[in-house]
Amino acid sequence: MASEVDELLALLSMEHDFHRRWEIRCNIEKAPNAATVLRDIRRHGPGRLRAAALDALMHLEGESGLDPTDLATIERLIRIRQHTDLLTPVMSIETTWWCVRDFDQAAVMASLGLTSPRPVTYKMANSVMEIIDSDDESGLVYVGPKINGWTPVVGPWCDAFGDRADEARTTIERLSADCGEVHAFSFSAYNNGTAWLVARNGVTVRRYSTFDPQDTTGDPLPIERDWMAAHGVPGRPEEHCRYNDHGVLAYDDEFADAMWNFYEANDVAAAVSVDVGWKHPHDAVIHGSPVLAAVPGAGPVTLPPGMYEI
Fold first, then answer.
1. pLDDT tens digit sequence for 201-237
2. pTM of this prediction?
């Protein structure tokens, strides 16, 4: 059976297509005693398959399936790649994040009670966010370096518009009282909804949400007002959106065509602080390096099984 795994690992080491790599990993997982075979290759070779074996082990068992030598290898590779690491999106299908003004990474972590920071590359942080996606039990967040004066915190724990909205909003307002301003965003790549919140000096001054239009409060941001004026839509954006009898987001008929093109959270984030997704800044002034951290009460957290890229 080792020969079957060897053949699949050889394919994995040469394949670059994301979906094909996923298929190969899944086929490796089906092989009897796959994890044992992979660990044996990690220890004894052949050398040409060792890197692919490590990749497959993370897919099968996550960090808990690696021995200390492999963990040290990954940490060393991350340290090396951080020297030339370029800012890239750190997001998932359902992305929630905060942007904290002026506070650096250490100050943000201390204020939020985040622990066990571990260096990562941006691509690895993105892998983690994709794997945990909307799993708020994962205990992990990504904390970016200060980017153009804003420090992002990303992960399901940052959802200020879902089940733990009250707790998240209380934390955001408290943090804004210390640093001056904090933003919260929610973006769905499946167009399930979008939202943003701006807190200044301990008070929420604007909250807009298509998840629940009645949850919206405060005066529209300048970027919102400018868009409405440019598209000839009167009033406030929340006045035009609602959910129909089937629970589907809809807009008033007269301005529906325009409002369907209204801003998403990543548009607003890119304009007022930092988008962690596709509209991330390409010429940013960056201070520090990205880390993963454990949320309050989670303690040290191991990375779950999944597809990782360093």
1. 999 999 999 988 889 999 999 999 999 999 999 999 9
2. 0.91
| Rg over CA atoms, the chain | 22
Q: Which residues of the chain have pLDDT under 70?
A: 1-2, 244-248
178 burial type by CB count under 10 A (0-12 exposed, 13-18 middle, 19+ buried): middle
Q: What are phi and psi of 115, to 5 degrees?
A: -130, 175
User: 12-20: long-range contacts at Cβ-Cβ below 8 A with a sequence spacing of 24 or more?
Assistant: 12/52, 12/55, 12/56, 13/48, 13/49, 13/51, 13/52
- Give residue for tokens 């008033």: 252
Q: What is the pLDDT of residues 157-177, one digit of tens each?
A: 999 999 999 999 999 999 999
